[in-house]
User: Which sequence fits this backbone?
């Protein structure tokens, strides 16, 4: 396991409600995010974020199912035995700044997109989730920032400025906490409209 994957998996597993969500999936099999939220005492956007992150790090499967309002995502735990290991002899000296920036905007976009899907009940047309494997260069960075801005503009028109602000705060709070030192060092929030980042600034 690479250093980046190790850190990401360790971070997700260490979050406050992760084990609760994992235990529920282990006991109940395929489950909708709304049911996981209800049974685990979480906001549906929070539960959905946890489930997407668990899928991203390879611990949870997902598939399309059907709910009262149409298609929804269902999740299940792949294996009740979860291991976290790393070969320290293979750990590189340092992750490049460009990799940090690209991963931050990729994950922020995906988080805002998932929160949008949960809120409005469908994925906005033409806005697909960005895959975990990407190039780490200036072009990719700009593409991700432009996609995020387009998604923010979509939400402004669809649900209004105030609701968009709340959505971004909910989607970005934990990510900002994880990237705290990098945000201070590289100004990672500078490309997002200031009205949406005021409550996300690092303390």
Assistant:
């Amino acid at each position: 396991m690479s250093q980046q994957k190790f850190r990401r998996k360790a971070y997700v597993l260490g979050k406050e409600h992760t084990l609760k969500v994992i235990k529920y999936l282990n006991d109940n099999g395929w489950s909708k995010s709304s049911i996981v939220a209800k049974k685990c005492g979480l906001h549906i956007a929070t539960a959905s974020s946890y489930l997407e992150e668990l899928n991203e790090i390879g611990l949870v499967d997902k598939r399309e199912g059907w709910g009262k309002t149409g298609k929804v995502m269902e999740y299940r735990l792949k294996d009740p035995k979860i291991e976290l290991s790393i070969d320290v002899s293979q750990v590189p000296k340092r992750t490049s700044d460009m990799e940090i920036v690209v991963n931050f905007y990729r994950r922020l976009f995906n988080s805002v997109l998932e929160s949008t899907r949960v809120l409005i009940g469908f994925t906005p047309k033409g806005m697909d989730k960005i895959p975990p494997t990407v190039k780490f260069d200036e072009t990719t960075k700009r593409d991700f920032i432009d996609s995020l801005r387009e998604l923010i503009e979509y939400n402004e028109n669809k649900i209004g400025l105030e609701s968009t602000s709340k959505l971004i705060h909910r989607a970005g709070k934990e990510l900002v906490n994880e990237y705290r030192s990098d945000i201070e060092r590289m100004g990672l929030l500078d490309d997002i409209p200031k009205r949406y980042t005021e409550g996300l600034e690092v303390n």
About this structure: The chain has nine helices and three strands. Strands lie at 31-32, 60-67, 70-77. The chain has a mean pLDDT of 85. The CA atoms of residues 102 and 141 lie 5 Å apart.
